[in-house]
């Protein structure tokens, strides 16, 4: 039962990470196309998706801790084997299914991190460009406009 719940949570996490990746791609398009409304919508989507991911991760962690015991120490590399041994899972297909799902989640996290970094880069350079433009057009005294937060 716990194993099925763990797999269900991992599938939910994978789906939410896929949603987050898609929204990051939309955010990137909104930044490049200078569509502020779409950009704001993607931020709202991110907040909801990240909240969902956080809750799923808490539930997944609780299940793993309940399976392995709170005091047991484990690392990323031996966690699957400990879960398989604890639940007495001998079927190689089931083991491989779990490992594949785990790998897919790790790859999604890498992609999310990559797009997040690209978006931060675009935002930072957009800010720098606007700052330089205002300084060029109006002089350094009017740079205070940029120092205020919206």
Topology diagram in text:
Layout: H1 2-32, H2 36-68, H3 79-87, H4 92-138, H5 144-147
Helix pairs in contact: 1-2, 1-4
Write up what this structure looks like.
The protein is mostly helical and 150 residues long. The protein has one domain: Methane Monooxygenase Hydroxylase, Chain G, domain 1. It is 83% helix and 0% strand. It is built from five helices and no strands. It has helices at 2-32, 36-68, 79-87, 92-138, 144-147. It is elongated. The termini are far apart. The model has no long low-confidence stretch (mean pLDDT 85).
Order of helices and strands: HHHHH
Average per-residue pLDDT, rounded, comes to 85
User: What proportion of the residues form beta strands (DSSP E)?
Assistant: under 5%
> What CATH architecture do you see?
Up-down Bundle
Structural class by sheet pairing and helices: mainly alpha
The CATH superfamily title: FlgN-like
| Proportion in helices | over 70%
Measured on Cα atoms, how large is the radius of gyration? 22 Å
Total number of distinct structural domains: 1
Q: Which key features would you list for this structure?
A:
150 residues; Methane Monooxygenase Hydroxylase, Chain G, domain 1; 5 helices; elongated
Brief summary:
With 150 residues, the protein is an all-alpha fold.
């Amino acid at each position: 039962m716990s194993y099925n719940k763990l797999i269900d949570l991992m599938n939910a996490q994978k789906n939410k990470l896929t949603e987050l990746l898609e929204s990051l791609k939309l955010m990137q398009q909104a930044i490049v196309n200078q569509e502020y409304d779409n950009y704001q919508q993607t931020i709202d989507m991110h907040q909801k998706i990240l909240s969902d991911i956080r809750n799923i991760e808490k539930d997944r962690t609780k299940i793993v801790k309940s399976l392995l015991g709170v005091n047991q120490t484990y690392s990323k590399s031996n966690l699957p084997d400990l879960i398989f041994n604890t639940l007495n899972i001998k079927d190689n297909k089931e083991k491989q299914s779990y490992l594949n799902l785990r790998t897919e989640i790790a790859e999604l996290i890498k992609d999310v991190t990559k797009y997040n970094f690209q978006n931060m880069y675009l935002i930072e350079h957009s800010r720098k460009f606007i700052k330089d433009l205002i300084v060029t057009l109006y002089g350094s005294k009017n740079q205070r406009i940029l120092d205020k937060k919206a």
